[in-house]
Amino acid sequence: MLLLIGLGANHGGVLSAFAGAVAGLGREVRVLARSNIWRSAPLGPPQRDFMNAAVLVEVAAHPHLLLGLCQHLEAEAGRDRSREPRFGPRPLDLDLLIAPRLVIESATLTLPHPRLAERRFALAPAAELAPDWLHPRLHCPLKELAASPVVAVQRCELAVLSDAWGALRR
Questions:
Q1: What's the domain range around 46?
Q2: Which residues partner with 53 through β-bridges?
Q3: What is the CATH number of the domain that holds 82?
Q4: Residues with catalytic annotation?
């Protein structure tokens, strides 16, 4: 199964955290592609801008297992969800965003991500990798969701860090 994972961080070494997350994912799943890095305005309390990206992965296991791996990788990067404020700064955030034609509603996982369609910082990198994927609830391609007037006004632009991130891909 193909799946998009969103990466976000605004505390500590972003490139290092992103590279570590992709390496950790690569030990368990097949990483097929990475988006550019995007700089976005933070939600929540005053804090530094976030850096965001997405990776396209191929997984054989159920997404619940992938969620566990993502939470483990966040902890390895220094994230402690029990101590951070909601929408506060973080060294690494990994979100399962969307998989084609897959809808999951459980106590621990909702796919597609419940706020994907309203967040440009998640849609821009996701649409970069899979522009024609249809949101399975909204039946709209990711590229159209990313261009919607409500989402398009949110501050989110390509980051200069994308050059270094690209160098890490080689």
A1: 2-169
A2: 7
A3: 3.30.70.560
A4: 79, 90, 93, 95
